[in-house]
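can u do me a favor
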């Protein structure tokens, strides 16, 4: 990428991190809300020794609805939204920013950018992820009061409890985010070559996001099981287990399959969430770019008109300023002048 040479391009470059933050945050919220019921069921199985099968999915959903109501499928999702917006926003913002600094991009650089983005966003929002996991396994209806009580109980054992389980989270998140972003970028590059043009279709974006999510989540899934166990067991009593002790406990209870329990459910949830997230991010960012471009065009049009009027070229503005936006602003200003003249004449 070249160095910006105009005030307009420089301004857009400075604002791009904010646009990435907003676009990524909204995209993450939408994706997580859609897959929240599957996420809750996955957590419920991850933190117990009960065997999981996709055949159990309908009965588990009906049991939750019967005992707790339909909205219980989204239990903890409100807390998750507070976490997801900054988490996804920071992740996309850091990744986009690093892509600019690491030009020209290679697969290795893309992997580094994605891994760094995942690590930074995880550290920034981890306490909310911890609380969301705790709420997901609590039976009965949850309220804002439950959330406050849970925070206080966790903090009774020290502020460090707010980051209980962050080690396996980071161990899993660094390669997870790196693989997800780098695979998505690689697959999009393949689609561009196949299409013979820079732009790819929405369907191709959905497919690239889905495949990248499937690969990334499958690769690091044991760490996801481990962090959920650490998040939901022992935190209230202050009992502490290391990452390897927790993995050993899961292995002794359920064998190797225990470390991959719920993975088949993740094969449904992950690709859906990733495809929605990546595609929605692109859509929102494009709309923000278009809105910003219109605003800057209107601003430059007004400035140009004022310059021409100062030079005495007010009558020829319409022929000199060719852009539609500028012609519109010229017409508005002339109409305003005529209105002022009429008011002066009526006062006389």
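np, heres the sequence
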């Amino acid at each position: 990428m070249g160095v910006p040479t105009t005030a307009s391009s420089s301004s857009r470059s400075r604002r791009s991190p904010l646009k990435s933050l907003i676009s990524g945050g909204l995209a993450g919220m939408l994706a997580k809300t859609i897959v929240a019921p599957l996420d809750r069921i996955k957590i419920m199985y991850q933190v117990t020794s009960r065997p999981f099968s996709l055949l159990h999915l309908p009965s588990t959903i009906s049991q939750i609805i019967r005992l707790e109501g339909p909205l219980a499928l989204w239990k903890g999702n409100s807390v998750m939204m507070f976490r997801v917006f900054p988490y996804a926003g920071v992740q996309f913002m850091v990744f986009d920013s690093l892509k600019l600094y690491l030009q020209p991009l290679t697969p290795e650089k893309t992997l580094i950018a994605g891994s760094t983005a995942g690590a930074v966003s995880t550290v920034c929002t981890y306490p909310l992820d911890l609380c969301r996991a705790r709420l997901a396994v609590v039976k009965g209806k949850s309220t804002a009061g439950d959330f406050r009580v849970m925070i206080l109980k966790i903090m009774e054992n020290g502020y460090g409890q707010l980051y209980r389980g962050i080690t396996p989270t980071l161990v899993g998140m660094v390669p997870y985010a790196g693989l997800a972003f780098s695979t998505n970028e690689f697959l999009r590059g393949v689609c561009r070559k196949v299409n013979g043009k820079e732009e790819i279709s929405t369907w191709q974006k959905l497919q690239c996001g889905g495949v990248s999510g499937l690969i990334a989540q499958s690769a690091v899934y044991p760490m996801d099981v481990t962090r959920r166990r650490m998040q939901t067991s022992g935190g209230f009593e202050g009992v502490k287990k290391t990452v390897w002790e927790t993995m050993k406990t899961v292995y002794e209870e359920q064998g190797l399959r225990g470390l991959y329990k719920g993975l088949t459910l993740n094969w449904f949830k992950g690709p859906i969430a990733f495809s929605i997230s990546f595609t929605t991010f692109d859509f929102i960012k494009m709309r923000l770019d278009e809105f910003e471009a219109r605003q800057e065009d209107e601003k430059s049009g007004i400035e140009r008109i004022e310059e021409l009027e100062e030079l005495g070229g007010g009558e020829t503005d319409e022929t000199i300023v060719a852009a539609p936006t500028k012609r519109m602003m010229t017409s508005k200003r002339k109409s305003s002048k005529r209105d002022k003249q009429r008011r002066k004449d009526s006062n006389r």
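Residues 263-310 form the longest helix (48 residues). hope that helps!!
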